[in-house]
């Protein structure tokens, strides 16, 4: 909200709703009821991507595969996505917690680097934890998003299916460059914040590379603040190591294209992207683990999806 207030303060044109991507700015003033003003304020405060508003220009929206002609059909087609994302999210979360249930698998916290293991085994273990943590975050966000999609379209809030397109690009792990991963595959919920507060002013003053670095620095601050809320420190250096290294990786990709005339893409681009993400994310995941964030409880023991499935198949809970 603080970043949005900064963005709105320095806007030179008013914010207005749009029907399509080619909508023109209203040329004549309109009168609004108090209810409409309140609805617009609520929408502006909570609409992360700006879908349906003029400030979402340049936003990448993944292709929609669900039927949008009918609200009921859209809701019914979203339910399987919600259930699938929730089960995968909880299964990956369970797998991560199972590596050490008494330390980072709980609220106690602990490092993902087991110093009692030989170096190769220690880093293979931490890499596996990092990979599973990435899937956990990805499907957790999708589960929440699909859940809010169903609620928002079921309640009389005036929402339409077009306002709830997919939040992630298809198969984020298939990205063939860091640029593609962060701009098209990963969610774009905070894009406007990073671009408006970070990239735009820095690139205007110092060029594209500085803009990229500034955008990822704003992302660092946002994620540090969230981690600081755990009450065990913000882990600034670990968080910055991940986001700023990805800014550096994107700058390297641009430099590669300039020098060779070829874009980072294809199979080797995918290998490069996954390797960079897995290496750079380990300090961040370790920070999550040490602050107890990985031990977060999203469900009660009785209602946890992995327990519901294990009780149906095995007759007992696999996690308690």
Automatic annotation (TrEMBL):
Bilayer-crossing regions: 72-96, 202-224, 236-256
Pfam families noted in UniProt: MBOAT_2
Cellular component aspect of the GO annotation: membrane
Top-rank lineage group of the source organism: Eukaryota
InterPro entries per the UniProt record, alphabetical: Wax_synthase, Wax_synthase_dom
Pathway: Secondary metabolite biosynthesis
Bilayer topology: Multi-pass membrane protein
One Gene Ontology term of the molecular function aspect: O-acyltransferase activity
Localization per record: Membrane
Domain Wax synthase: 164-244
Entry keyword Nucleotide-binding: no
PANTHER family xref list: LONG-CHAIN-ALCOHOL O-FATTY-ACYLTRANSFERASE 3-RELATED, OS04G0481900 PROTEIN
Keyword annotations of the record: Membrane, Transferase, Transmembrane, Transmembrane helix
Name by which UniProt lists this protein: Wax synthase domain-containing protein
An example Gene Ontology biological process: lipid metabolic process
Natural source organism: Candolleomyces aberdarensis
UniProt record similarity statement: Belongs to the wax synthase family.
